[in-house]
Amino acid sequence: MTDKATLTIGDKSYDLPILKGSTGPDVVDVRKFYGDSDHFTFDPGFTSTASCESKITYIDGDAGILLHRGYPIGQLAEESSFLEVCHLLLNGELPTADEFTLFERNITYHTMLHAQFDTFFQGFRRDAHPMAVMTGAVGALSAFYSDSLNVDDPKQREISAHRLIAKMPTIAARAFQYSQGRPFVTPRNELSYSENFLRMCFSVPAEDWVPNPVLTRAMDRIFILHADHEQNASTSTVRLAGSSGAHPFACIAAGIACLWGPSHGGANQEALEMLEEIGTVENIPAYVQGVKDRKYKLMGFGHRVYKNFDPRAKVMQNTCYEVLEQLGINDPLLQVAMELEKVALSDQYFIDRKLYPNIDFYSGITLRAMGFPKEMFTVLFALARTVGWISQWKEMFEDPSRKIGRPRQLYTGATQRDYLAVEKRG
Ligand code: SDX
């Protein structure tokens, strides 16, 4: 087992230490390489770059494995609850019964928003995309909760983390109700996290809201599946923003903005729109040909890390079946999705590129059946991922070797030249 790599440039050789983790690929430590060699390493898109050391989430893309603090996602989705997973991600261990009672109380008693915060939503048009509302609202939280912005104070870091986990459902539900022209619903402390969220989204003053335990369980499981995912684009955004010392509300708002992209968290909305565009099983061959002709991508398929099944996609698919059955919905788009998956998985173009369904492929059908419009899909992703973002932010901030993130570049622009007066240009 070697403990160093040697890189030779011209007549010079550079020894680079190899660092080993508890599992997964070793890394070549290039931190001193530029200082020694006057060369940068080059890796746009970070396809071969480990940006940090972390103990939170481990993914084996070839084996389709996802662990949160060592626990497989399938076990957590089946056995745990989202709030328990929040404690696990934030604190490193599953909580004891007493620890969970205290944690759940801390979260529950932060679910309300400052009364004046509700007027913030009035500034948006009713047809504003809810992700625009989320990005703005979360960034504005610092204006209402300025007593927990001192990131150097561990107590304030903990309060901010609790506030973000607790208030995201309230903000998301307000973004949804506002878009529907319905009055805001205040959280209820006797309800569980996911039940509280569904009530804030779907209850109306004109009648009592009746919880559906199957849908509550499905919502909670969907949150678990989206909670964290190693150093994905939005998590890397949060870490980079946090490396400057920015407070967590600003960092999470940056993460929400990044997640919105169609290649990332926006793919769940795009995947449903793709299924709607295909419409019927008969149209699948023509659509797949369009993918192979590179006219568009198959949304909800492919992944930078998973070159096998996304373990979350299987759980998502089962949850989709459960919800549709519970609601007695026979969604023709589910047949299209299942047939499309079968066609893609047997087509050499997709096999060669190791393209499998990811978490976004079945989530749209499920969420639509639950009553969410597709504009809310990425909002739900952001709600759940907030605990992952804030856990990664906390880990980054508490790392004694923390430095501000400042990548360099391969410069291919104009070399130095003198200013030319306008009459001499031409
Ligand atoms: C999420 O990183 C995470 O962990 C993200 C996430 C999380 O939980 O945080 O898992 C959540 O973002 C899931 C991914 C959601 N995005 C989509 O479903 C959008 C569609 N997928 C693609 O855009 C793509 O697969 C990416 C962006 C997800 C990954 O792209 P990569 O790893 O950069 O791969 P690539 O673009 O280099 O593709 C390799 C090849 C290319 O073909 P060639 O040029 O080699 O011939 O595969 C092709 C691509 O054209 N390809 C696809 C495809 N995805 C990749 N072709 C058709 N359809 C696709 N979906």
Class from helix and strand fractions: mainly alpha
Question: Radius of gyration from the CA trace?
Answer: 23 Å
The termini sit apart by 62 Å
Report strand %: 5-15%
pLDDT averaged over residues: 96
Number of helices: 18
Main beta sheet, described? Answer: 3 strands, antiparallel
Helix content: 40-55%
What overall form do the CA principal axes indicate?
globular
Number of strands: 6
Q: Say which molecules are bound, naming each kind only once.
A: s-citryldethia Coenzyme A
Strand order in the largest sheet: 1-2-3
- Which consecutive residue ranges, at least 5 long each, have pLDDT under 50? none
Written as H for each helix and E for each strand, in order along the chain, the element string is EEEHEEEHHHHHHHHHHHHHHHHH
Question: Could you give a short description of this structure?
Answer:
The chain is mainly alpha-helical. It contains 18 helices and 6 strands. The chain binds s-citryldethia Coenzyme A.
